Every structure is written in structure tokens, then in C-alpha cells.
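Review form for a predicted model. The reviewer records the input and the model, then writes brief findings.
Reviewer: anonymous (R2)
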Amino acid sequence: MNMYPSNRTDIRRTFFDVWRKQQAGEPLSALENIVADIIRLHPEYQALLSADPGKMLDRDWRPEGGETNPFLHMGLHIAIREQLSIDRPAGVKAAYAALLKRSGDAHAAEHMMLECLAESLWHGQRDGRLPDDQVYLACLKSRGTG
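Model under review:
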């Protein structure tokens, strides 16, 4: 598994490959175990990942149509777990701990983080700049104390 797939198709194919290997009981790398865990936490996406990848690799999910892109959603979970593993941006682990305490559930805490991360990424993309770590952390902290 390429740790950092280079395009949307490769990223999506990674999810399909990991889920197939998981279902077949094949050994998974450390990164594949993270992906498989995220897929297990999202049963609503498992049928999609069990289907013919050719039909889903190029599909667009439109938020304006009320759709959630399952690959983006799961990819944000992966990004959050990577952030937590290295506490980058600095303070993200503490913010997660507050969210976990508030929600009482690791997956729910990740979902609260996911909303802040997605918003931060969207603003950065819209403004043609990198996401602002301080704005992201402030969003996380507001959710952890709200």
C-alpha cells in the first residue's frame, strides 16, 4: 500500500483494497489496520466498499445535494488519527481529550474534530492558503467546552 496515494483514484482504491483484504482475513500493514478500523466504524460505507470499485472510483458526492463523500469522510478520520499520533498541531491531543471527556465516545469525539478540520481545510482552500492551525484548535476547544 502506497502510504500517500497521489490522486483521488489511488486513494479510493486503497479503501477498496484494504476492505477486501480485511474481509478475506489477509494480513494488513499498520496503516492498513488504521484504514480497516475506520471502515469498521462506518458500516454505512461497507456495502459501497464491497461493490465493484469501477463504479465508485470516479463518482462525485455533492454536498449541495445533501451527500457526504465517504472517502473524504474516512480520509479525515485518518488525518485526525495522524494528528493525534504526533500532537500536530501542538495542542490537538489536549483538545481531543476534552472532546472525548465531553462525548464519552472516541468515534463521536473524532466526528467533532472532523467538522472543525473540514471547515479549516475548506477555508484554507477557498482563501488559497494553508489551513490556520490556531483557528482549527480554537474550533476544537470551543466544542470541547461547549
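Findings: The CA atoms of residues 45 and 70 lie 7 Å apart.
Further findings: DSSP finds seven helices and no strands in the chain.
Recommendation: see findings above.
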